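A further point concerns the way the authors explain their paired sequence and structure data. For illustration, here is how one protein appears when written out as sequence plus structure tokens:
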Amino acid sequence: MSKTPTRQSAKQAVTHDMVVGLVGEIGNAKIAAILAVGPTPEDLEEAVVWAGGQSDVMGEERLPLTGVAAQICDILTVDQDDNDERR
């Protein structure tokens, strides 16, 4: 009898190396925070695109970023927000 994989078990886990590969060296605290939210590779990729400002490709029709991807985007941009306010 074969067991049907559940959505949770079929989900590929994001690793430290995957985060560094997509984002670069952002510090262990941010990487740990990203891994703690349990992202899928798709969540991570989507957040990186948004954090890099490349989400404008969809223009007015784009949907707001939600869920785990939004949490990752917040983690990635928290320092950027602080720097913008100082200017």
Residues 12-86 form one domain.
